[in-house]
Amino acid sequence: MVDIVLLVGKLLLLALLYLFLFAAVRAGIGRVVVAGPAGVKALAIKVVEGPRELRGTKVTLTGPVVIGRSPDADIVIADDFVSSRHARVVPQGDGVVLEDLDSTNGTVLNGALLGAPAALTAGDEITLGTVRLKVEKA
Predict the structure, then answer these.
(1) For the whole model, what pTM was predicted?
(2) DSSP result, 8-53
(3) I need a labelling partner for 133 at 20 to 30 A (CA). Which of 40, 52, 66, 127 fits?
């Protein structure tokens, strides 16, 4: 008799748990924000030239992206000419800004060495060591 009561209790607890999870998921539907604020054009960084395993990789810029040789970087580039934390791309306001993180060999934007943070637009090319990245619309 005790076994039946325990079994019914377990089944009731399991049913309540599933009911709670269903209610939590249902309440969250529609609250997830996929795109940024209105008017902001989503951009992405694509690896155009570099290590074979990275070529074609595309990262949408929804938050700060650190590029470097360190495993902690968002885009990890195994190149001797790339610093461990080489550059950072940060969405700011209605645009995106590229900044060099005091890298040894510098960051090149559209053929010119980057001296200060610069705004990025679709079509810009970033060169880090022997790797070339292109800014595209997402």
Answers:
(1) 0.67
(2) HHHHHHHHHHHHHHHHHHHHHTT----S-STTPPPEEEEEEES-TT
(3) 40
